[in-house]
């Protein structure tokens, strides 16, 4: 589990294309300070498993499913990425509960002088995003300031712009999105309830 509080900005130092996968090496002195084989680190919001740690860098394998759903398919050497270690049991929940399971990608549209930043939102994710609710953008826990069918806005404080990659985003850049997992569970439970209610009504009328 993660909370969306970025610990450091890392740098991709190597990208190796594998069969239906990719292997990345990322520089992150802080997150590797206590990391070992099998540990989880979120890379721009994507939960990945460490396969090797050496010299302040860690290596991860990214499977095809993750490449298809996230911006990591286009990552290149030199790219900056947000890094967060998994939250330890009993740790502070500084942002919101995140799994590191990216639901899809959005597009950075722009930011005004007050830090209000707008992203394009895929239609299939729109129903999970609500005003004043939580959303993760490139692994950063953010509060939704406004929402329409195809876009949402968040207000970014100067610190967030400074300590995450969001400060360097330009119009057209892809970002990883993870919606609130609670909303997805509620939808699943509600669907079953509504289906049962409809079946009961139809059964009573026959």
TrEMBL record:
Each Lumazine-binding repeat, start to end: 1-96, 97-190
EC class: transferase
UniProt-listed InterPro entries: ATP_synth_asu-like_sf (IPR023366), Lumazine-bd (IPR001783), Lumazine-bd_dom (IPR026017), Riboflavin_synthase-like_b-brl (IPR017938)
A molecular-function term among this protein's GO annotations: riboflavin synthase activity
Listed EC numbers: 2.5.1.9
SUPFAM superfamilies: Riboflavin synthase domain-like
Taxonomic superkingdom: Bacteria
Any Pfam family: Lum_binding
Annotated ranges, domain Lumazine-binding: 1-96, 97-190
This protein's pathway: Cofactor biosynthesis; riboflavin biosynthesis; riboflavin from 2-hydroxy-3-oxobutyl phosphate and 5-amino-6-(D-ribitylamino)uracil: step 2/2
Swiss-Prot/TrEMBL keywords: Repeat, Riboflavin biosynthesis, Transferase
Swiss-Prot/TrEMBL catalytic activity: 2 6,7-dimethyl-8-(1-D-ribityl)lumazine + H(+) = 5-amino-6-(D-ribitylamino)uracil + riboflavin
Job description of the protein: Catalyzes the dismutation of two molecules of 6,7-dimethyl-8-ribityllumazine, resulting in the formation of riboflavin and 5-amino-6-(D-ribitylamino)uracil.
Protein name per UniProt: Riboflavin synthase
């Amino acid at each position: 589990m993660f909370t969306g509080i970025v610990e450091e900005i890392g740098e991709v130092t190597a990208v190796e294309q594998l069969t239906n996968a990719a292997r990345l090496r990322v520089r992150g002195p802080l997150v590797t300070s206590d990391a070992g084989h099998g540990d989880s680190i979120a890379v721009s919001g994507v939960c990945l498993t460490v396969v090797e740690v050496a010299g302040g860098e860690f290596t991860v394998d990214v499977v095809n499913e993750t490449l298809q759903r996230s911006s990591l398919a286009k990552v290149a050497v030199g790219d900056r990425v947000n890094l967060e270690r998994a939250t330890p049991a009993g740790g502070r929940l500084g942002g919101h509960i995140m799994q590191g399971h990216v639901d899809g990608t959005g597009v950075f549209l722009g930011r005004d002088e007050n830090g209000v930043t707008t992203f394009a939102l895929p239609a299939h994710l729109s129903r999970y995003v609500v005003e004043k609710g939580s959303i993760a953008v490139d692994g950063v826990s953010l509060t939704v300031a406004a929402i329409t069918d195809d876009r949402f806005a968040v207000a970014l404080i100067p610190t967030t712009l400074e300590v995450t990659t969001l400060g360097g985003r330009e119009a057209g850049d892809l970002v990883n999105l993870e919606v609130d997992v609670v909303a997805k569970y509620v939808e699943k439970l509600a669907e079953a309830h509504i289906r049962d209610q409809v079946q009961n009504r139809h059964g009573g009328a026959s």
